[in-house]
Amino acid sequence: MLPQEVKEEILTYLWDDKRSLKRCALTARAFVDPAQKLLLAKIALQAPFEFSRKTKQSKFTASRFEKLLKSKPRICQYVEHLEIHDTDGEWLPKDASVLRILPLLVKLKALDVEYNKFSMQRPGMLPASFFTAVLSAIHRPCFEYLSLSEFPKELIKHGQHLTHLSFCEFTSQKLSPISCSNCTAKLSLDSLNIRYLPDGYQQESFLQTLRNNIEIKKIRRLFASATDSM
């Protein structure tokens, strides 16, 4: 009989093959937990009506995933990377399941949120309650990666463990008051991705905010995009 750690090492070679991992989980009890850890390491939340294409991560609606977490609490610690897709701006502001999911993911390392507030539905900015839930996640020591399409300026004062930050634009949205004695130093990032660099008079204010809150000289990889002037 092979030791359990050897079996788990074998499964890691199938990390991107969901079909094989599911089959392994059905063949032996010793494979169930390690296979589930790999299957649920990266989760994507999508709209209930969105067509689920074949990807290397498991896709759920927020409400369905919340039910799964509550029925099997042990899998909360398996999720390391959470993606939330609402490119049409239709469901995320109204779905309270996400607010309840984020505090449950105690081993979350990365959060990637794509949200379009300028969709045909015009729902506007995400509610402050959403960013309060984000704050609860980024204060965990294991949390390293944050990507948001809209980024409240106050949020940049938090997340001392972040190594990667990506965002499209700053917003002036106010966050709920939070007591955070550890977030006093500037962020020490390995990489920074600015997907929209403002121009004109807004650019200097934007850059000054970055200087005030991020150790710019410690950044190893910097990406920035600007709109073409017409």
Give an account of the 3D structure:
With 230 residues, the protein is an alpha/beta fold. It folds into two domains: 39 residues; 178 residues, Leucine-rich repeat, LRR (right-handed beta-alpha superhelix). The protein is 30% helix and 22% strand. Helix 1 packs parallel to helix 3 and helix 2 runs antiparallel to helix 3. The radius of gyration is 19 Å and the shape is globular. This is F-box domain-containing protein. InterPro entries: LRR_dom_sf.
Write the SSE topology.
Layout (H helix, E strand, L loop, with lengths): L3 H9 L5 H10 L1 H11 L2 E5 L11 E4 H10 L9 E6 L10 H5 L8 E6 L12 H11 L6 E8 L11 E8 L19 E7 L3 H13 L7 E6 L4
Parallel strand pairs: 1-2, 1-3, 3-4, 4-5, 5-6, 6-7, 7-8
Helix pairs in contact: 1-3, 2-3
Protein name: F-box domain-containing protein
